[in-house]
Design goal:
The protein is an alpha/beta fold. It contains 7 helices and 10 strands. The strands form 2 sheets. It has an 8-stranded mixed beta sheet, sandwiched between helices. A two-stranded antiparallel ribbon has the order 7-8. α1 links the parallel β3 and β4.
């Protein structure tokens, strides 16, 4: 199938956002908007979003991916980022693919919360594909930290990695392991979302498997797919392909 790739420049709150849309010759009524997390740009780690877009477009699914406010080539201040840039991207998506009637949002890592909170307020969004979703980690009796939707600084990411290392070390020495907590706002959003939810995680040993299971319990029409031994930053082509085919199969199943 012939695929046209278009570079996009659109605006959100006076800031220019940069994106790319892959439009099949005969697009299906359901498209996909890819929402990068705080550690990635529109191409994705190891170009996984670029390759996923091509695979889906070859099956007739139009795909838009973009740099969020203050990330990559887009303008803006990350600290001010909420769901406004998602709405701006969704509007642009439907303009460029008028054959589309609905869209799903694919969101990896810490983008899962922002995607769910946006989706519940936009009737055009009929599905959420959450890859290795990241939730706040809390021990018993400790309050869950506030949700964070914008890209984090390099220092913030280093702190998160250090926290992950400490959690792993605590498991080795037998200390209490923090468990994922679904923040009330996110639980309410998922509970009120009328579409479908796909949760893709790395299987046994994945640091975010418990988070995926916790989110699965918040939505009655959710499906969890575990890819054994996979790291969903898609460093290996086999893992990347498995994620792509899981998403493609889910999109065509309803």
């Amino acid at each position: 199938m012939k695929i046209e790739q278009r570079a996009l420049r659109f605006h959100c709150a006076g800031n220019a956002l940069i994106g790319i849309v892959d439009v099949p010759e005969r697009p299906l009524a359901r498209g996909m908007l890819i929402l990068a997390d705080s550690s990635q740009y529109r191409s994705g780690s190891h170009r996984q979003f670029t390759l996923l877009s091509r695979l889906l477009a070859a099956r007739g699914v139009a795909v838009l991916r973009f740099d969020r406010l203050g990330a990559g080539d887009s303008e803006g201040i990350p600290a001010l980022q909420g769901g406004e840039d998602i709405g701006a991207a969704m509007k642009e998506f439907f303009i460029h693919v008028p054959e589309m009637k609905e869209s799903v949002i694919l969101a990896p890592g810490d983008a899962a919360s922002g995607a769910a909170l946006y989706a519940v307020g936009d009737a055009r969004v009929t599905g959420l594909a959450l890859l290795d979703p990241l939730l706040p980690q809390v021990a018993a009796g400790v309050q869950s930290p506030a949700l964070h939707y914008g890209p984090r600084s390099a220092a913030d990411r280093l702190l998160r990695r250090a926290a992950a290392f400490r959690r792993a070390a605590s498991r080795v020495v037998g200390r209490e392991t923090p468990t994922p907590s679904v923040p009330p706002a996110l639980a309410q959003a998922l509970g009120g979302f009328g579409g479908r939810v796909l949760l893709v995680c790395g299987g046994a040993g994945s640091p975010n498997l418990d988070a995926a299971r916790a989110l699965e319990g918040q939505h009655p029409r959710s499906r969890r797919v575990e890819i054994a031994h996979a790291s969903l930053d898609a460093r290996r082509s086999a893992w990347r392909d498995a994620v792509a085919f899981a998403c493609a199969g889910w999109l065509g199943s309803w």
